[in-house]
Structure formats: structure tokens, C-alpha cells
Amino acid sequence: MPFYHRKNQYLSILEEVDELSVSDLAKKLFISEPTVRRDLAILEKEELIIRTHGGVRLNNRGAYEFTPLLLREKNQNTAKAIMGKKAASLIHDGHIIMMDASTSVLNILPYIGHVKNLFVITSGVKTSYLLSKMKINHICSGGMAISNLFSYVGSEAERTIRNYTADIAFFSCKGLSLDGKATDTSIEENNIRKAMIEKSAKKVLLCDSSKINKVYLHILCSVDDVDEIICEAPLPPQLQNLLANKRRKTI
């Protein structure tokens, strides 16, 4: 069983009880206690659980109570959780932010439950649902729904986004070439992201290392168009140099 499946099961089980021992978790998941201990060490590092004397309990602070729904995403993995936490550190009280419908951006949500007076504009169906559960004020763009991507696209969605300005736009892509081009397979989603980039003061691209040095049909933007690239691993030197050159140009 892959770790991300076990991760979802741990959190679902711990939602039902106040505390559980390592041996009880091992029995419930039909795995060894050493495997449970290794997994719990990762979950503790991600601040999803709290280790206690002889056991473990769920970390219910802020938005973590909604984390199990996020973890049911097929593409969920530790990389996206790491990026989500890094991105969330940029969000402060009173911010207005834009979020696309990607699973990378969706993983910011477990880490922003404590932010006060936050307002979000999103094109994501699941993002909007979770924001409602978290009681975070937001606007969903509406428009034509792409059911398999849980995303709204089209002219109506673009118009809604362009009616607002934001402090930060968070968005993702399918590929990021070493010469700094972010690309995707969906021109419709790219158009939504371009509107978010246009209407936000700061542009933040979330791109895990599996997408580096890959190129797809539709160009979203270049490194010159973004202020920060968040990745779970160090960026290749070529991309680091491009970002450094951009910063020198804007100083």
C-alpha cells in the first residue's frame, strides 16, 4: 500500500478517537509497527499529528480537521504538502489571494486556517468547497466546469477574476523547462491562470520536481512573469540563475 493511502487512513482513523497507540494502528492497517513509526515520523514533521507518551493523536489546529479530504486526491504526496506549507508562509492577515484549481495549490489550505481576515478568489470547485468548510470568505469564479479537473474555465470565469485585484496569485503548471517556460496541456486553465497573474501584485508558481525539464503544448508564462517558484526540492542551477537575474532587473 503506497504511503499516501496509509496517510489518509491514519488521519481518518484518528478523527474517530482521541488517541491511539502504535500497536493499535498497526493492527487496524495490517502493517508492522516499525512501518507505523516511520509513517508517524513523517506525519509529525508535517504537523498533521501529535506524538504522545505511548500513542498519537490528530493535530486539530486550524484547518487540519479538513486534511483527510485533501489527502484523497490521487496526486497527493509529500512533495505537494511541503510546497503547500511553504506557500502558506507567504500569506498574512488581511491578504487577498487568488488560487487556481490545481492539487498543488489545494494543498495550501491545511496551513492557512489561522490567518485572519483572509479573502480568496478561486477557480477550483474543491478549493471553494473546503474554503466554505473552513469558514474563509471567498469568491468562486463560476463558469464552465471541467468535471475531471474540478475547475471552472471560460470567459465568465475570466471576467469574474478580472473584477478583482489580489496581493498574491498561487498557481501551478504541468511542466517547467530549464529555460524558464511554464507550460500546460489545458489552454482553458492557462487562460484562467493568466488572468490571475495579471490581477495580482505577487505571482507564485508551485511546481514540484517531477515537472522540471518537461514541456507541454500551451505556454502559461516565463520565469520573468513570476516572483517566486516554490518546489519541494532545490531548483536546478539554470532556473535559479533565471530567478536571480529577474530580481536584479527589478531592484
Structural descriptors:
10 helices; three-stranded antiparallel β-sheet; alpha/beta; 251 residues; 39% helix; Arc Repressor Mutant, subunit A; Rossmann fold; six-stranded parallel β-sheet
Describe, in plain words, how this protein is organized in 3D.
By secondary structure, this protein is of the alpha/beta class. The protein folds into two domains: 3-60, Winged helix-like DNA-binding domain superfamily/Winged helix DNA-binding domain (Arc Repressor Mutant, subunit A); 67-250, Rossmann fold (3-Layer(aba) Sandwich), CATH 3.40.50. It contains ten helices and 13 strands. It has helices at 3-16, 22-29, 33-45, 67-71, 78-88, 103-106, 125-133, 155-162, 187-198, 237-250; strands at residues 49-52, 55-58, 96-99, 119-122, 137-140, 144-146, 151-153, 166-172, 175-176, 181-184, 200-206, 218-222, 228-230. The strands form four sheets. The chain has a six-stranded parallel sheet with strand order 5-4-3-8-11-13, with helices on both faces. Helix 7 links the parallel strand 4 (119-122) and strand 5 (137-140). The longest helix is centred in the first third of the chain and has 14 residues, at 3-16. The termini are far apart.
